[in-house]
């Protein structure tokens, strides 16, 4: 399978997780909104890695690898300027993922996610938009 096909499949999955996060936020399921936001940003980032032929570890926090994209002169300046925010979001949401998925076992309540969930969804939306825009640029998609 070609890198562009794998990258597009990954972005479709990322958009699906983002839609789930937005739906969970509207429904008041705050931990799920955070969890699904993390999944969205992880898959969006990994889609970019596939598109660029970059190997990545099978782990949730790929922020350190993503940071390296800021120095790639072959990528559009607009995207490179967003790399610090995307890398920060990847690290931030990777840390929150465990709390969102399993925090209930440690007594973490929905109150913990009151401010975090809307921010997580907003960040995920911005990351997905940036990554999708880059993929469209790389593969000359006119949609």
Description:
Helix 1 packs antiparallel against helix 2 and helix 2 packs across helix 4. This protein has one domain: Four Helix Bundle (Hemerythrin (Met), subunit A) (Up-down Bundle), CATH 1.20.120. It is mainly α. The model has no long low-confidence stretch (mean pLDDT 93).
Q: What attributes characterize this protein structure?
A:
0% strand; 143 residues; mainly alpha; single chain; elongated; 5 helices
Brief account:
With 143 residues, the protein is mainly alpha-helical.
Fold-level CATH name: Four Helix Bundle (Hemerythrin (Met), subunit A)
Q: Give the CATH level 1 class.
A: Mainly Alpha
Q: Helical proportion? A: over 70%
Give the helix/strand class. Answer: mainly alpha
Mean pLDDT: 93
**SSE string:** HHHHH
| Apparent shape | elongated
Domain unit count: 1
Largest sheet: none
Q: What is the CATH architecture term?
A: Up-down Bundle
- The CATH fourth-level homologous superfamily: Nucleotidyltransferases  domain 2
Strand content: under 5%
Number of strands: 0
- DSSP helix count? 5
Distance between the termini: 22 Å
> Could you name the ranges where pLDDT drops below 50 across 5 or more consecutive residues?
none
Q: What is the CA-based Rg, rounded?
A: 15 Å
